[in-house]
Design a protein that fits this description.
The structure is a single chain. By secondary structure, the chain is an alpha+beta fold. It has two domains: about 5-45, no CATH class; about 60-305, NADH Oxidase, CATH 3.40.109. The protein is built from twelve helices and nine strands. The protein has helices at about 5-15, 30-35, 45-55, 60-70, 75-80, 90-95, 110-115, 130-140, 205-215, 235-245, 250-270, 280-290, and strands at about 95, 140-150, 155-160, 170-180, 190, 195-200, 230-235, 275, 295-305. The strands form two sheets. The chain has a seven-stranded antiparallel sheet, sandwiched between helices. A two-stranded antiparallel sheet has the order 2-3. Helix 8 runs antiparallel to helix 11 (about 250-270). The two termini are about 45 Å apart.
């Protein structure tokens, strides 16, 4: 069968690697150019270094001792307190309780999986607090408690959540930009799964518009301004890396993916639309959220609303 000229060009582009000895002195290097110059460039490749540095190696005593410390009474107690960290002063001033109950899903899990699709157009209609609470509890809420008996005879109660987390440390926090939620001010909040409430993360309402403008795409690609809420997944990597070292960062990303998946499936089950989006200017969002971008850093976003 005769291949089309387009398919031939695609095949050539992906089958041959050109010799580019000048790439390190090139002012503007596209990702494609970097890929084609892998064998000739001397520049550091940080993503690959992360994969190498986060490998688990047999006989690593430091790794074993770090993990073992979490299996002690003090380590178990520390895990039981995850999510109860001291809130920032502004978060203590504004607390919005969520409805105690949740909405039933309109479809089964298998149907929600089949129905899930990225939704980029939204109507601008509002969410109810009950819908928002259902989304948050389904994606990152506490769903049960486990009592762990300690060596001294005491008991530590560990709250567990709807998403898995490496070592039960839960380093990923959900921030909500409430664009259009009935009964909720147009502000940025942090979801507190232990208290089952929202805490004001940014009192300045102008941060909401700044956050919308921090996305690196136009409204014709995703109608962010007409969505009902934006969910920011913010990680505290050292909560996990303190136990697992550099490998812990892998667990952070896995947890963020689990939260994102639960959000999407819950949105499908409620008849809402959602889409992942990584096209944001990190530093601008960090400023709006009041975080430093290193010890607390945005790792992912989900935009959600009523499908248009």
């Amino acid at each position: 069968m005769r291949q089309s000229p387009l398919l031939l060009r695609v095949q050539v582009a992906n089958s041959y690697r050109s010799l580019n000895p000048w790439v390190d002195s090139t002012g503007v290097r596209t990702h494609d150019l970097r890929s084609r110059a892998l064998t000739t460039s001397n520049r550091r490749r940080l993503a690959e270094e992360f994969l190498i540095n986060s490998r688990l190696r047999r006989g690593d005593k430091e790794d074993g001792l770090s993990i073992a410390s979490y299996l002690s009474d003090s380590g178990t107690t520390l895990v039981s307190l995850s999510g109860k960290e001291l809130d920032r002063p502004e978060e203590l001033e504004g607390v919005q309780a969520l409805p105690p109950n949740t909405l039933p899903m309109k479809m089964s899990l298998s149907a929600a999986i089949q129905a899930r699709a990225s939704q980029r157009r939204f109507t601008g209609d509002s969410l109810t607090m009950l819908e928002l609470g259902t989304l948050l509890k389904s994606s990152a809420g506490v769903n049960r408690h486990v009592d762990v008996e300690l060596a001294d005879g005491e008991t530590a109660t560990v709250p567990l959540r709807t998403t898995p987390s490496g070592g039960g440390l839960y380093p990923v926090y959900v921030y909500v930009v409430a664009l259009s939620v009935i009964g909720l001010e147009r502000l940025i909040y942090r979801y507190d799964p232990i208290g089952d409430c929202l805490r004001v993360a940014a009192r300045d309402a102008s941060n909401v518009e700044k956050v919308i403008n921090a996305f690196a795409l136009t409204d014709d690609l995703i109608s962010i301004g007409r969505s009902s809420a934006i969910f920011f997944l913010v990680a505290r990597p050292w909560k996990t890396m303190r136990k697992y070292g550099d490998r812990g960062l892998r667990f952070v990303f896995l947890e963020a993916g689990s939260i994102s998946q639960n959000l999407h499936l819950s949105a499908s089950g409620l008849g809402l639309g959602s889409v992942d989006c990584a096209a944001f200017f990190d530093d601008e969002v960090h400023t709006c959220l009041g975080i430093d971008g290193v010890f607390d850093a945005l790792v992912h976003t989900v935009i959600l609303g009523r499908p248009g």
